[in-house]
Design brief:
12 strands
């Protein structure tokens, strides 16, 4: 009996470790904001996956992610439970990716040399955080380095290596602690390498403080205006005059405090400011010679910024480039990343969600920006943890860039931040106020702007280089599968791409191309496309997944007042059979011809991942929502394929789901 209990305990321990890390990851971010726990938060997970195979490690990491991001992103429930559930699953998959990727390298490098685990974890963690922060699917929420936004003794690391490098240092500390715990449990002498890793963490903190800070050119008195207007009220035409009057009064208050640059929140001005000369003139007069940075909707429509001088002339304009998926479906993205030059200095601009992206801010500072202005409207998040989590990003942007940040938030939290990350002033949530203070201005940028930003991409390159011998070994063990995989990707993929180009302007679905691709896939897949006993199971599950995701997308759009059509308005809408044929061809290719040799070559992680990535690349477009759709359906359909061993049954759901996506064209 005791032996059975011991076996049960060993089986349960990894799950408990995953849950423990999940809970700790919740506690280290706002609202709890216990950032000091970040230095041990990953320890239970690392102990759980230390000797696990990659697939099992992924599942353990995924469980940790479900707990962590389900709690961290709890505020997303304000936009509907489906949106919260889908986002939680996506972020949990990234933590699972970290666990599986680290375990993959450990199997080769740490089996004989346990000390290798000490470089595998920080390199993998940094690479995964980078991957989940860039590209059309980038969502850099909950990055480990953000937990230190209030710890001025740690923040200097970010001035050199950015938020990603700071996260890597924290991951190094975690793996060193985990190694020492393993030594203690095994009654071994403390590992010299683990002790050295902790020493390296200490040296990183100390070295960052010793780095000579560049001289500051001077100071400017800057102001952030917080009108505290309900987001829904901004579209009420009857309130437009009252809202402008309120902004004018707050602008006069900022002028009286000596402000030289006055920043409004995102979409603070109800009218179209670019065509409302009388509104621009009122604001310029109220500013009394100060530069006004006004958030407003611009023609397009675009969510933008107008920078006005003392004569109400437009010094520059900026349109938000990184739009919020689903929340800004009717808005066109901007493309210019140029800083705006004014008589008071050169300004870098970021609107709302953009402040979470290091790579959007760095080029503007490299151009010579003296100050970063962040305009945001977090009123949609209410009093949840969302506004505080969002505000933490601005602190890291200040440290990374070596620039003061003025953050003007509609309902809060507005902040004035020094280049060292110290918050000089903050206006609480749901209050009206004007913040004004003299902040350091200009000077050489932080090392991160010049060369430190390269460290995270180098970590990703290092991971790929370390994984390459593993991939070559797998190919060497099964060269036939590698050849079949290359053929399965290249031949139908080439035909499919050519067919999409040829039929791009056609009024009917490319049924003939789909049929040809299906025939090619059938020849390459060697009977793995169809399992008759389970085709109805795969078909039913895929239809259910598709229906749930359509429901989640409609709910997310509805929260912002957009109605998502259920069928396209173009002639394709009458060709349901064509869509089904198209879907069967796609699934026969991705989850049939490609999936089977990938499964033989690298197991289900490679098969699911590769078929999902190909599906995203196949249909990638300007709308992030469509990319999200193919990511989620790709992973879900891959899981169904693993369980049912059937690909063709997934086709009808794929085709009909893609038909629904055609209806999104008018929303972006």
């Amino acid at each position: 009996m005791s032996r059975e209990r011991g076996v049960a305990t060993r089986r349960l321990a990894p799950a408990l470790g995953a849950v423990a890390t999940g809970v700790l990851l919740i506690l280290i971010f706002p609202n709890w904001d216990l950032g000091w726990l970040a230095w041990i938060a990953l320890v239970p997970l690392l102990l759980a996956i230390r000797h696990a195979a990659p697939g099992r490690a992924f599942r353990i990491g995924f469980l940790a992610g479900l707990v962590a991001y389900g709690g961290l992103m709890e505020w997303v429930r304000l936009f509907g439970l489906p949106a919260w559930a889908v986002l939680t699953l996506a972020m949990a998959a990234m933590l699972g990716l970290f666990a599986g990727a680290a375990s993959l390298l450990a199997g080769r490098y740490a089996r004989q040399r346990p000390a290798a685990w000490l470089w595998i974890v920080p390199v993998t963690w940094t690479a995964v955080e980078l991957v989940r922060s860039v590209g059309p699917l980038g969502f850099p929420w909950g990055l480990l380095g953000l937990t230190q936004h209030g710890v001025t003794s740690i923040l200097p690391i970010a001035a050199v290596s950015g938020v990603f490098g700071l996260g890597g240092v924290i991951a190094l500390a975690n793996v060193a602690v985990a190694a020492l715990i393993e030594d203690a449990v095994g009654r071994r002498r403390p590992s010299t390498s683990a002790t050295a890793a902790l020493l390296l963490v200490g040296l990183s903190v100390g070295a960052a403080h010793l780095w000579p800070r560049p001289p500051i050119d001077g100071t400017r008195v800057v102001a952030a205006i917080q009108p505290n207007v309900a987001p829904q009220a901004k579209g009420d035409v009857s309130l437009a005059t009252a809202l402008v009057d309120g902004l004018v009064r707050q602008t006069e208050e900022a002028r009286d405090q000596g402000a030289e640059i006055i920043v409004y929140p995102e979409t603070a001005v109800p009218p179209d400011l670019s065509t409302s000369a009388w509104v621009r003139l009122r604001m310029a007069r109220a500013a009394g010679g100060a530069v006004v940075v006004a958030g407003a909707f611009l023609p397009g429509p675009q969510n933008g910024v107008l920078v006005l001088d003392s004569d109400a002339r437009t010094l520059g304009r900026y349109a938000k480039r990184r739009l919020v998926p689903f929340g800004e479906a009717g808005v066109r993205p901007g493309f210019s990343a140029d800083a705006v030059r004014t008589p008071a200095g050169t300004l870098a601009l970021a609107v709302c969600y953009e402040s979470a992206f290091s790579f959007l801010i760095r080029p503007q500072v490299a151009q010579g920006a003296d100050l970063l202005a962040v305009l945001t409207n977090d009123g949609w998040f209410g009093t949840s943890a969302g506004p505080a989590q969002h505000a933490a990003h601005s602190v890291l942007r200040a440290v990374e860039s070596g620039r003061s940040v003025v953050r003007a938030a509609n309902t809060g939290t507005s902040m004035l931040i020094r280049p060292d990350g110290v918050v000089v002033a903050a206006q609480p949530l749901d209050t009206v106020g004007v913040l004004a203070a003299a902040l350091p201005f200009g000077g050489p940028p932080a090392p991160y702007v010049r060369w430190g930003w390269l460290l995270a991409p180098l970590a990703a390159v290092a991971w790929v280089a370390a994984a390459l011998p593993i991939a070559l070994t797998a190919v060497g063990r099964n060269p036939a599968a590698a050849v079949r995989l290359a053929a399965a990707i290249g031949i139908p993929g080439g035909v499919f791409a050519a067919g999409r180009i040829i039929t791009a302007d056609a009024e009917v679905p490319p049924v003939l191309v789909s049929a040809l691709v299906l025939a090619l896939c059938a020849a390459l897949a060697r009977g793995t496309l169809l399992t008759r006993r389970r085709v109805w199971l795969s078909g039913g599950l895929s239809v259910l997944v598709t229906a749930l995701l359509i429901g989640a997308m409609r709910a997310a759009y509805a929260q912002y007042g957009f109605s998502m059509p259920l069928w396209p308005s173009n002639p394709w809408g009458t060709w349901a059979a064509g869509y089904v044929a198209y879907g069967i061809a796609v699934e026969a290719w991705l989850r049939g011809a490609v999936f089977a040799p990938a499964l033989d070559l690298g197991g289900w992680p490679l098969a699911v991942g590769l078929s999902t990535v190909l599906g995203v690349v196949l249909t990638v477009g300007p709308a992030q929502e469509i990319v999200f759709w193919h990511l989620f359906t790709g992973v879900a359909f891959g899981a169904i394929r693993v369980w049912t061993s059937d690909a063709v049954g997934l086709g009808p759901a794929r085709g009909l789901g893609d038909a629904v996506l055609q209806g999104l064209a008018g929303l972006r």
